[in-house]
Amino acid sequence: LYKIIYWWRIINGIAKINKDGNNLIKLIEHTGIGSVPSGVEWFKDGRIFYHDISGNNWDIYSIMSDGSNITKVSTTPYDELLPNVSPSGYRVIFISNQFGGELIYQ
Fold first, then answer.
1. Residue 8 vs residue 15, higher pLDDT
2. What are residue 63's DSSP bridge partners?
3. Contact 17/2 with Cβ under 8 angstroms?
């Protein structure tokens, strides 16, 4: 089994690694300035959710655990960040500033 790690100083992106610390596989190489992908969460179907800067705001993205199919999930002009997968593994909640303050959405 894998676990997700995020460590910008070493990989500058998102990677998965075996629980024993072997077999580091980089999934996303971050090329933006001033930020790195973070807020990483596994979804029950194998997708990984994270937030990253897109233009002038933060958005939620998903990627398959093999590194394929990067998809921008949030498309508003507001910040959406810190995705968190529900205990059931079938819902993602996140923080957004859409209404002027930081509120939790699903």
1. 15
2. 48
3. yes
Instruction: Report residue 80 as tokens.
Output: 């959406």
Nearest alpha-carbon partner for 62 in 2, 4, 1: 4
CB distance 13 to 28 below 8 Å? yes
User: What pLDDT does 10 receive?
Assistant: 60
Q: What pTM does this model have?
A: 0.78
Spell out the residues 6+ positions from residue 42 whose beta carbon is closer than 8 angstroms to its own. Answer: 4, 48, 65, 85
Residue listed under structure tokens 């089994």: 1
pLDDT at 7: 53
What are the tens digits of pLDDT across the range 64-104? 888 899 899 888 888 888 888 888 878 888 888 877 765 55
d(CA 40, CA 49): 6
**Which residues fall within 8 angstroms of residue 2, CB to CB, at 6 or more apart?**
16, 17, 18, 19, 25, 65
Residue 67: which of 24, 19, 14, 20 has the closest Cα? 14
